[in-house]
Automatic annotation (TrEMBL):
CDD domains: YdeM. This is MaoC family dehydratase. Residues 28-122 form the MaoC-like domain. It comes from the Bacteria. Transmembrane segments: none annotated. It comes from Pseudomonas piscis. PANTHER family: BETA-METHYLMALYL-COA DEHYDRATASE (PTHR43664:SF1), MONOAMINE OXIDASE-RELATED (PTHR43664). Pfam families: MaoC_dehydratas (PF01575). Coiled coil: none annotated.
Length: 161
């Protein structure tokens, strides 16, 4: 697989810059024990995410990040590197959230993004829809989570056909 690069910076990127079939990779982000626990305290207070000692005797034999935390880390890389800061017009949703492997303290996560589909909106001619596959990848090259977001992006020149 050949990785792609955008020819325009994130603050000049529009729908036309998202090319179907392109693949990008960003990161890594380091995952720390304290952030795993803090996220769990606020949003997913299960012992496997909160208490390293209790988690050691649990099904994962150690502390793991909440799947929602993992998706949040992936989202951070998505917004910081991929999603246009000038043309993003929100998202109608996501499909197919999957968690494949636990994320543990000390892991490093990268984000691989594949553009699956692009199409201009029929009802709103000033924008298009980009459907992507996001895959969180750990330091061993294993996919730990995936999700398929849909994003509306403004066209650079909505008058041009």
């Amino acid at each position: 697989m050949k990785l792609s690069t955008f020819s325009t910076p994130i603050n000049e990127r529009y729908f036309e810059d998202y090319i179907e079939g392109s693949v990008f990779e960003y990161g890594p982000l380091d995952v720390g024990e304290s952030e795993i626990i803090e996220f769990a305290r606020q949003f997913d207070p299960q012992m496997m995410h909160l208490d390293p000692q209790a988690a050691a005797s649990g099904p994962f034999q150690g502390l793991i990040a909440s799947g929602w935390h993992t998706l949040g880390l992936m989202m951070r890389l998505f917004v910081d590197n991929y999603l246009s800061s000038v043309a993003s017009r929100a998202s109608p949703g996501v499909d197919e959230i999957r968690w494949f492997k636990p994320v543990r303290p000390g892991d490093q996560l990268r984000l691989r993004i594949s553009i699956l589909e692009t199409r201009r909106s029929r009802s709103k001619p000033d924008r298009g829809l980009v459907i992507s596959l996001l895959e969180g990848i750990n330091q061993d090259g294993e996919v730990v989570a995936s999700v398929k977001p849909m994003n509306f992006l403004a066209l650079r020149d909505p008058v041009a056909q």
